[in-house]
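In this supplementary section we document a worked example of the pipeline. Step one takes a protein sequence of length 282 as its only input; no multiple sequence alignment statistics are reported here. Step two produces a three-dimensional model, which step three serialises into structure tokens for compact storage. The input and output of this example are shown verbatim.
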Amino acid sequence: MAAKPSVFLLVLLLGAAARAQSPDNSPAAPPPDSAKFTRYRVPSFGISGPLGRDQALSPLRYAGVGMLVHWNSLRIKPHLIKQTVVRVGGAALSNQSNGNALSLAQLGFEYNRYYKVKSYRGDRLRLFAGGGGDFFLNLKALSQNVNNAVSYDFALSLRAAGLLQYDFRLLKRKFVLTEELSIPFVGILARPPFSWVVPYDAYEEGGNWTNAFRVVSLGNYRRLQNRLSLDWFPSERKRRWARHTFASNWRLAYEWEFLQINRPNKVQLVTPALLFGRVMRF
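The serialised model returned by step three reads:
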């Protein structure tokens, strides 16, 4: 009977050793490329200052101030970023020489995929390259005109894009500085049919509206988008005090867009904007 505790203890030890030597059935951590996406939404609001001219309406330049709303959706993996951006804006422009007023409405959508090319300084500095597609609509109205009071620019295009990110810390806070640059290289452009004809009286009002569309490339259609943003996280103390703020960060962004359509009636439009928003993880 005294041997029973020793036998019982021996069985326990053998069972523990067998369990330690058996393979681990728990799921292994997935490699970075197969990890799930981390998702963010960034609503932003800001002020824009468009400057430009449309020779289909007037040879003069117009400048003014407007409002701009952004909705940015991000899906991020260590080696891949998927980005969707919706832009809606409006502005009131004027010309100082004659006092005429021009109304401008803007709508844009873009989808980008960025692939990680290189990382530096312990992955604090990351370079991405890729591209995507976009469309935009600029609707312009000059009420002083009689025959050609409204003009528009609409384009659906493919583009090349690049992104550079840099992480740093300052005053116990984490910051992420991001620079984005994109250039469309081919697309379909639409303008009012009369804007493709010089002089205007050569255009027939009953003409085919398919004449409004043209296939364009870098030779006759130039558009450059540059976006610089700074995201900052709450401090360590604030994250401990209010955990619900951990996934909510702030963003300050400067955006600059240049558009030029060459012939036959030249269009030039520069739209700088300053935006402020919140980065929300979901």
